[in-house]
Amino acid sequence: MTKTLNNKAWFLVLPVFAIVAFSAVLPLMTVVNYSVQDTFGNNQFFWNGIGWFQELLDPSKELGGRFFEALWRTLLFSAIILAIEIPLGILVALSMPREGWTVALCLVLMALPLLIPWNVVGTIWQVFARGDIGLLGWVVNHLGIDYNYTGDALDAWATIIVMDVWHWTSLVALLCYAGLKSIPDAYYQAARIDGASRWAVFRTIQLPKMRRVLLIAVLLRFMDSFMIYTEPFVLTGGGPGNATTFLSIDLVKLALGQFDLGKAAALSLVYNLIILAICWVFYTVMTNVDADRERVEA
Fold first, then answer.
1. Does the domain spanning 74-259 belong to CATH 3.90.1150.10?
2. CA distances from 170 to 85, 118, 151 (A)
3. Which of the residues 26, 37, 50, 77 has the least number of beta carbons within 10 Å of its own beta carbon?
4. What is the Cα–Cα distance from 237 to 260, expressed in whole angstroms?
5. pLDDT interval class at 221 (50, 70, 90)
């Protein structure tokens, strides 16, 4: 018996494709158009070809040097965030209860930081870390540590990192908790019969079963941390100096502060390509490792 395929359902998603094309593709084409042009004001544009891209990728140029400095800062920030939040999120998920009324309480508490808007998070920590009226700044200064996130680059970095860890570790913990809850009890029963230690259970049962949710957590946290803008902009404004001027902040300064639309458009396209390339590498490496493990186990 031949099965007839009905593709009429695809017509139901055509409006979605149309909306995506209007809201994403058309603005992208506008950015591409600006990236190959220059303007001297009065809405007069002149063809510049790939000139902005050449200047952007040349570290000896002013634009290129500015771009690479902001890029290294952003990559360093993302690496620190992943190195802290992924292990911490796993530890929190392992510590959360599996049953009882405390499960709902823990889930609500974990979700609270995620519900706060990004600009409010920056404002909260801007006040919280002040040395004169902020609880954090007052306590640190009274411990004998000269703390001033607006005047010291190391203090500014530490404050932004702690702020991001407070804001987003809950996301990693909730994803890992969902992965842990999906593990059947039969695995734990077999481990108890074999006399497996707590570390052995984590290494051979829990971590492999969390691999897929960890992939999602790593990708989400990398993209969020690499594109971070609102929180550090509200907290430090990119300062002191350019110490916390990440790529996103530098892009906004270039586009809105200096109104260099051509340079900003070229920077945004390269920025987007970097994010796509790194995410593709993350996804490819982690899925290949997962596939190799499943092949070995089979």
1. no
2. 9, 15, 30
3. 26
4. 19
5. very high
Q: What is the pLDDT of residue 149?
A: 92
For residue 287, give both structure tokens. 């899925």
- pTM over 0.85? The answer is yes
DSSP assignment letter at 97: -
Give the pLDDT confidence of 115-160 residue by residue, as tens digits: 999 899 999 999 999 888 889 999 999 998 899 998 899 999 999 9
The CA dihedral of 222, 226, 229, 232, to the nearest 10 degrees, is 80
Which are the contacts of 235, defined by CB distance < 8 A and separation ≥ 6? 122, 125, 126, 129, 149, 156, 159, 160, 163
- Rounded to whole angstroms, how far apart are CA atoms 28 and 24? 6
pLDDT over 90 at 100, yes or no: no
**Length of the chain as a residue count:** 298
Match 């497996």 to its residue by tokens: 196
